[in-house]
Amino acid sequence: MAALEELFSIFVTFVEFVFRPSSRLFPIHLLAMIVISFLLYLRTARSTSFVKWIFPKQTYAHPSHRTDLKLFVLGQFLTFIGLFKLIAITTAVATTVMGLLGGPLDGVPKFGALPVTIVLIFALDFTVYWVHRLHHETPALWPFHAVHHSAEVMTPVTVYRKHPVYDVISLTSKGLLGGVLQGLLLAMFVDEIQVATIASANAGYFIFNIVGANLRHSHIWLSYPQPIEHILISPAQHQIHHSIEARHFNKNYGEVFAFWDWMFGTLYVPSAHETLRYGLADGSGAPVEQPHTGLRAALGVPIAESWRTIRGTAERPAVSPEPEHQLTGTNE
Q1: DSSP character at residue 257
Q2: Which of 81, 215, 292, 309 could form a disulfide with 235 if both were Cys (CB 3.0 to 4.6 A apart)?
Q3: 87 vs 190: CA distance, rounded Å
Q4: In which region does residue 228 sit, left (phi positive, over 0), alpha (psi from -120 to 50) or beta (all else)?
Q5: Which of 183, 166, 32 is nearest to 104 (CA)?
Q6: What is the average pLDDT score of the chain?
Q7: What's the rounded Cα separation, in Å, for the pair 251 and 274?
Q8: Helices (H), 19-56
Q9: 163 and 84 Cβ atoms separated by less than 8 Å
Q10: How far is CA 54 from CA 30, 208, 215, in A?
Q11: What Å distances lie between residue 162 and 99, 269, 320, CA to CA?
């Protein structure tokens, strides 16, 4: 009996962890998604019911969504036991950089918490853009990120459709690069070391999650006026990133801000609602057979593909092998 109570206690703790405020599935974030979706539903004057429109059976019963759920549970479990906490090191790196610089730098104008927080969010998003882009453009890394892009339907759970190796590489890279950038910025613009300022920058993503982030991985189209889509990545722009149409290849890598894509030539702004297909495709945009048919394939296939790429690169150093499955889009 005591063992069952202990297991139940662990289960409850895990559920509370999964639905923490930083999660896209936090109830407030899901409620915000439903409210925004309902307003879009009213505008489109659909003939079907709202429940069927927002939760279509063909999407949520799709085999791709079942793979999403399996990877979601695995990823949350690995995070729960502390694996990814060990490499989520942004704050530690930022504090170390400030310490190496001897604390706040003299002779540099200092600013209040709000402008510094905004600049830190820019630094975080700049880091996300390049880490994301490198996963698309580095043949040995692409197979691990391809797990995310192989989703043939998209739901809010799809954001967690990630290979553990991708999480390790991504979180480590973001932690190191983002931590260095944050440490430099804090040393230049803040009067004293304030780890809370870093936390406030991370809290900015709470607002991002409320204002429609869950629609990014969904069938619901939400675009912004074109001038705004040169500044902020809309849910529609991220859906385009997942598209298998050739014209959408290597576009919209940004998470929050679109001006990184605009600056580096990877921005795609739709002029109207586009009908999209998701999954993986070859270089011409022709769909390829789903390589991640279940949890075992989603975990094993990328390792094999990446290893073949590394071996091929080592044997022919002058040649950059192309990924076996090329995406018609970009990404998280």
Answers
A1: B
A2: 215
A3: 26
A4: alpha
A5: 183
A6: 83
A7: 15
A8: 27-44, 50-54
A9: no
A10: 12, 21, 10
A11: 34, 26, 24
Phi, psi of 281 (to 5 degrees): -145, 165
CA atoms within 13 A on the CB side of 158: 31
Q: What is the DSSP letter of 322?
A: P
Residue 325 lies in a domain: no
* Residue 5 maps to a domain: no
Region 35-49: mean pLDDT is 88
In this structure, are residues 88 and 214 in contact, taking their beta carbons and an 8 Å threshold?
no
Determine the Cα–Cα distance for residues 58 and 70; give it in Å rounded to an integer: 18
Are 242 and 278 in contact, with CB atoms under 8 Å apart? yes
User: What residue has token string 């043939």?
Assistant: 152
Q: Which of 73-82, 93-102, 247-256 has the lowest mean pLDDT?
A: 93-102
With respect to residue 279, please indicate whether it lies within any of the assigned structural domains: no
Tell me phi and psi for residue 287, to 5 degrees.
-60, 145
Cβ–Cβ < 8 Å for 115, 150: no
> Which pTM was predicted?
0.84
The per-residue pLDDT for 22 is: 75
* Domain annotation covers residue 78: yes
Q: Please give the tally of structural domains in the chain.
A: 1
Provide the pLDDT for residue 198: 57
Is the Cβ–Cβ distance between 329 and 248 less than 8 Å? yes
Q: How many CB atoms lie within 10 A of CB 202?
A: 16
User: Domain residues for 137?
Assistant: 20-221+294-315
Query: Over the stretch 90-137, which tens digit does the pLDDT of each residue have?
Result: 777 877 887 777 766 666 666 666 677 777 788 889 989 999 999 999
